[in-house]
Design goal:
There is one protein chain. The protein has one domain. It is about 30% helix and about 20% strand. The chain contains six helices and five strands; from the N terminus they run αααααβββββα. Strands 1, 2, 3, 4 and 5 form a five-stranded antiparallel sheet that branches. The longest helix is centred in the first third of the chain and has 22 residues. It comes from Streptomyces graminofaciens.
Length: about 250
């Protein structure tokens, strides 16, 4: 599907389903409240866990995850885009869920936010879409584009807001390909003073709730049974901790 068409479909789905999801979870769009300008970081993760699930395995030499280099941390947009690229760069051969990728992006968190996310453990499994990817031992790649609708507060010396659109693809190690992460991501960044490095303080996402379409491959028939088995045992999560996305 053409990238523009995929984006239009994703945005439409996000408008219908994602906003309802955020409302149901009681989450507030950070743009609804003006920033105090004190640069103080959030100290809690977005979702409180009930029963922790294990994190993923250490990455091996064949892992496929993004590693942006030379990110200008004096540029709020560059930091937001780098964080989003890494936080949506999953490798299901090693990751047990989306939160593992979020932790790889922790270098761009504020100190308090990084500590909160490192202590967080997802309480629910990663869901059907994740299970589909995992059945193919897939990794994801994403394109990150500005999606600013002009409604975000203006930047101050110590606070900035960025809206980004994520358009992802999934690549199975068995040759399968399918739709990857699709979401609009709202990032709040803070810094202690003008000229200081920007850090991610809060994230809210609106997911495009579409199933992972696939390009048929010879491995699809044999992997269907394993995907079905995986779906009853694999890990899943709600999509609203900065950390928890596919359902």
């Amino acid at each position: 599907m053409d990238t523009r068409l995929r984006r239009a479909v994703a945005v439409a789905l996000a408008t219908v389903t994602g906003v309802a999801m955020l409302s149901a979870c009681g989450l507030k769009d950070y743009r609804d409240a003006a920033d105090t300008g004190d640069g103080k970081a959030s100290s809690l993760p977005s979702v409180s866990p009930k029963a922790p699930l294990p994190s993923g395995r250490p990455l091996g030499p064949d892992a496929h995850v993004p590693t942006p280099k030379k990110v200008d941390d004096k540029d709020a947009t560059a930091v937001a885009e780098a964080w989003t690229e890494v936080a949506y760069g999953y490798d299901t051969k090693y990751d047990s869920g989306p939160h593992d990728a979020v932790l790889r992006a922790a270098r761009w968190f504020t100190a308090d936010k990084a500590e909160a996310e490192r202590s967080y453990r997802p309480a629910a499994a990663a869901g059907e879409i994740w299970n589909t990817w995992a059945g193919h031992k897939a990794w994801t790649t994403v394109e990150v584009e500005s999606d600013d609708d002009g409604d975000a507060p203006a930047d101050t010396r110590t606070a900035a807001y960025r809206a980004l659109f994520v358009d992802g693809e999934a690549h199975g190690r068995d040759g399968w390909t399918g739709t990857g992460p699709q979401a609009t991501v709202y990032v709040k960044l803070v810094r202690s003073a003008k000229g200081g490095p920007w850090r991610v303080d809060d994230v809210r996402t609106v997911e495009a709730a579409a199933p992972p379409s696939a390009t048929p491959s010879a491995a699809d028939t044999s992997s269907a049974a394993s995907s079905s088995t995986a779906s009853s045992t694999a890990t899943s999560s709600a999509a609203t901790s900065p950390s928890e996305r596919p359902e």
